[in-house]
Amino acid sequence: MNSVSDDSLVPGARAEFLAGVRAEMPLLLGIVPFGLIFGVLGLAAGLPGWAVMAMSVIVLGGSSQIVFVQLWGAAAPFLVIGTTVGVVNLRHLLYSASMAPYLDSLPWRWKWLLSYLLTDEAYMVAIQRFRDGPATAHRHWYLLGTGLTLLAGWFGSTVVGVWVGQAIPASWSLDFSIALTFIALLVMSVRRKSEICAALASGAAALVLQPLPHKLWILAAAAIGMLVGLITYRWWGEGRTER
After folding, report:
1. Environment class of residue 127 by beta-carbon count within 10 Å: exposed (0-12), middle (13-18) or buried (19+)?
2. What are the angstrom distances between the C-alpha of 100 and each of 94, 104, 118, 204?
3. Which of 84, 199, 231, 243 lies at a C-alpha separation of 20 to 30 Å from 74?
4. End-to-end CA separation in angstroms for the chain
């Protein structure tokens, strides 16, 4: 486990990697239309095609990229765009904290690589493997498989969206697949009572705060959801129960 090249020769590492790829593949059914939509929305917001495609590699965050292009297209102030995207991406800190105990012994080069690949869908699949599967020496390759599969599907669909997305009929209503993707992730990942409260509070706030200018309801709903989740998490002592 001292280097990527050494690990790649071990059958256990190869098996973990391929298992991660297989586990992630079904989620591409939701990711591909999501990427197509982002490609279309990015061009419609006035971004050049190369910038839209570059975002899918550099940012690698579907929800934050969608929020960015929507705010950009609405000519929102840059401070609002940056703050909103930053808050939306705060969930990755939670992902990192959740995965850290399983990856703590890895070299920093592995941690940097896996942190880049730790997207919503990759986390959802990998955390189940780490929690419920055997603690093998090469299980980090499972996360590598899920992350690279997600990256390939996301970037490839974005490229297709930039090239031919404008020709997709509006009657297909592909934009609704964004909501379906995140609903599926939410339903499959929520376990604690505090997480349910956070999701309900954030959803209710998003509906009530729609009239706010510059799409600030996104920022406000995210903040309210996190606050409610933290309060209820401490109220019920879920951290003590897990320990």
Report:
1. middle
2. 10, 6, 12, 32
3. 199
4. 29
Q: How many domains does the chain have?
A: 2
Its sign, for the CA torsion 131, 226, 190, 187, is negative
Contact 24, 150 (CB under 8 A): yes
Residue with tokens 């986390």: 123
Distances (CA, A) of 133 to 18, 75, 127, 151: 15, 47, 9, 24
With beta carbons less than 8 A apart as the criterion, state whether 76 and 214 touch: yes
> Among residues 4, 122, 9, 137, which one has the least CA distance to residue 62?
122
- Residue owning tokens 């570059």: 54
Q: Which residues contact 225 (CB under 8 A, 6 or more apart)?
A: 198, 199, 201, 202, 203, 205
Query: What pTM was estimated for this model as a whole?
Result: 0.70
DSSP 223: H
Q: Give the mean model confidence (pLDDT) for residues 4-33.
A: 81
Query: Within a 13 Å sphere around the CA of 161, how many CA atoms are in the beta-carbon half?
Result: 28
Say if 182 falls within a structural domain.
no
pLDDT tens digit sequence for 148-200: 999 999 999 999 988 876 666 656 665 565 566 567 667 766 778 888 999 99
- Residues 158, 90: one domain? yes
Same domain, 98 and 207: no
Residues spanned by the domain of 203: 190-243
